Amino acid sequence: MNQERFDYRTGILASPSEIDAAEWNALLARQAQPTPFLRHEFLSALHATQCAVAETGWAPQFVTLTDPRTGKLAAAAPVYAKRHSYGEYVFDWAWADAYKRNGIEYYPKLLCGVPFTPVQGTRLLATDEHARRHLAATLLAFAEQADVSSLHVLFPTADEANVLAELGMMRREGVQFHWLNDGYRDFDEFLSTLEQKKRKNIRAERRKVHEAGVAMRRVRGEDITDEDWRFFSKCYRQTYSEHFSSPYLNLNFFRTIGATMPENLMLVLAEFEGKPIASSLVVYQRDDVTNSATGGTLYGRYWGALEHVPCLHFETAYYQPLEFCIEEKLSTFEGGAQGEHKMARGFLPTVTHSAHWLAHPAFADAVARFLDSETTNIHAYVDELREHNPFRS
Q1: With bands split at pLDDT 50, 70 and 90, how would you rate the model's confidence at 120?
Q2: What InterPro entries does UniProt report for this protein, alphabetically (predicted)?
Q3: Which helix (H) or strand (E) covers residue 21, if one does?
Q4: How far apart are CA 191 and CA 306, in angstroms?
Q5: What is the pLDDT of residue 2?
Q6: φ, ψ for residue 383, nearest 5 deg
Q7: 275: burial class by Cβ within 10 Å (0-12, 13-18, 19+)?
Q8: Dihedral sign (CA 343, 345, 350, 353)
Q9: What are the start-end ranges of the E strands in the chain?
């Protein structure tokens, strides 16, 4: 049967609040790789609490396609006009510097992705493949017509990266470290699959925390109190302070997602003599987004400590979430950006994707050559990492 031809109605929206939340989330639920970070509640919280707004260099320019026959969303993408490259985790500082040295403006640029969130997942929400390809073409047309240097789609799925590459965007690859649940009955069974030295080190790290008198407590989203959020936010700010940086998120953001999407959140609290001294926040989602018995992904997000205890970071941000994954039968734990040290704890290298378009022909050509070389190096790096597999032969 021939598909009826029609033109979508295109929208460029300056706030997530201009989009019907139920429609957006229904569209997200239909995707092959949805994540909690693309929920309307999450994106709206970033905007409403002034974390991702024009004043912070993240001006929303959400692109929507509406089906004129139904008046419903057919496709949508979270797009921002950026005036810096902070909070992206796909680094283009060298590109911006090259533009500057040649007297050319690199900012503003357009970015399709989730602010401050290096998590791969669907970026081009669509009812079907026809709408997805139309949306991808619309993003490029928007960039070509706008007064921007470039368009960047960060952490899309591999299929989406292929669609964007077919339209002429340059592909880029990166590496993260993910833990896969092989149906472990408990944490000890997982440990039994690791090489002896790594198994011994993990047990020693956990023992140090226990012998220091630290007790661990996990709190699911619906049970997180305002006092818990205030403590966690203090830990989060402390981590950024220790790295001489400014935090991207504020207490109101954490309070907001705690109220609007508690089913996706868990805090791990480390306590000494009944007083909290460290915490980590993880986000999780089951495969069918409706609390099925098995399957799903846990995402490590933020951690911080107000007191130093040896190995407390590993216990709070890795081992407690790993135990939770095993108990809840979640299939994957994505540990976030970077971190070869995660391999010693059972995480394996995973290739991530991004897609890039630069308006300036000469710079586009130079970046294309750079990406060819970088991709070769990434593949060699992943091959080398896999030779150091932490599991027993």
Answers
A1: very high
A2: Acyl_CoA_acyltransferase, FemAB-like
A3: helix 21-29
A4: 29
A5: 39
A6: -60, -40
A7: exposed
A8: negative
A9: 9-13, 58-60, 62-66, 73-77, 79-82, 109-112, 125-126, 150-154, 170-180, 214-220, 265-272, 275-286, 296-305, 332-337, 348-358
Question: How far is it, in rounded angstroms, from Cα 22 to Cα 247?
Answer: 30
Q: Provide the 10 A C-beta neighbour count for residue 27.
A: 24
- For the chain, give the percent of residues with pLDDT over 70: 97
The model's pTM:
0.95
CA distance 218 to 168: 46
Beta-sheet strand order (sheet of 296-305):
58-60, 79-82, 109-112, 150-154, 348-358, 170-180, 332-337, 296-305, 275-286, 265-272, 214-220
Q: Give pLDDT, residue 393.
A: 77
Q: Are 42 and 258 in contact (CB under 8 A)?
A: no
CB under 8 A, 24+ apart: contacts of 3-10: 3/130, 6/67, 6/68, 6/69, 7/68, 8/65, 8/66, 8/67, 8/68, 8/74, 8/75, 8/131, 8/134, 8/138, 9/65, 9/66, 9/68, 10/63, 10/64, 10/65, 10/66, 10/138
Q: How far is CA 109 from CA 50, 52, 57, in A?
A: 20, 15, 10
* 8 A C-beta contact, residue 57 and residue 51: no
Question: Positive or negative CA dihedral for 9, 13, 15, 16?
Answer: positive
Amino acid at 51: C
d(CA 261, CA 287) in angstroms, rounded, equals: 16
Average pLDDT over residues 105-132: 97
| Token reading at 235 | 């830990």
pLDDT band, very low/low/confident/very high, at 288 (cuts 50, 70, 90): low
Q: What amino acid occupies position 117?
A: T
* Domains identified in the chain and CATH numbers: 9-176+351-387 (3.40.630.30), 182-330 (3.40.630.30)
Q: Coil, strand or helix: which one is 83? A: coil
Closest CA to 176 of 300, 336, 33: 336
Q: What is the mean pLDDT of residues 116-136?
A: 97
Using DSSP, state whether 372 is helix, strand or coil: helix
